[in-house]
Amino acid sequence: MSNGEVGVKVKGRLAILAAHLAAPPSSDVSSPKIIEPWCVAGQTAASLGGSLTIIDERTGKKYQVPVSAEGTVKAVDLKKITTGKDDKVVKVYDPGYLNTAPVRSSISYIDGDQVILRY
Question: What pTM, to 2 d.p., does this model score?
Answer without folding.
Answer: 0.48
